[in-house]
């Protein structure tokens, strides 16, 4: 699944195009859980960029890390 997402994110900023959407929001719980479990996201460069962009959003920081 992550390989498919990585391929999609190669040409797009977000999962369904160029706008942050519910598709991106729906993946946030998985990012948090898998990240804490040590999942090797770094092997998917475009996915990693997308993940880092989400994690840098003020709403992510407020809802998850604060």
From TrEMBL:
Gene3D superfamilies: 1.20.1050.10
Pfam family, one: GST_C
Residue span(s) of domain GST C-terminal: 1-66
InterPro entries given in the database record: Glutathione-S-Trfase_C-like, Glutathione-S-Trfase_C_sf, GST_C
SUPFAM superfamilies: GST C-terminal domain-like
PROSITE patterns linked: GST_CTER (PS50405)
Protein name: Glutathione binding-like protein
């Amino acid at each position: 699944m992550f390989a498919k997402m990585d391929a999609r994110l190669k040409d797009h900023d977000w999962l369904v195009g160029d706008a942050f959407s519910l598709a991106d929001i729906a993946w946030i719980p998985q990012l948090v859980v898998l990240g804490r479990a040590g999942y090797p996201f770094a092997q998917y460069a475009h996915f990693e960029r997308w993940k880092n962009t989400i994690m840098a959003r003020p709403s992510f920081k407020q809802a998850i890390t604060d």
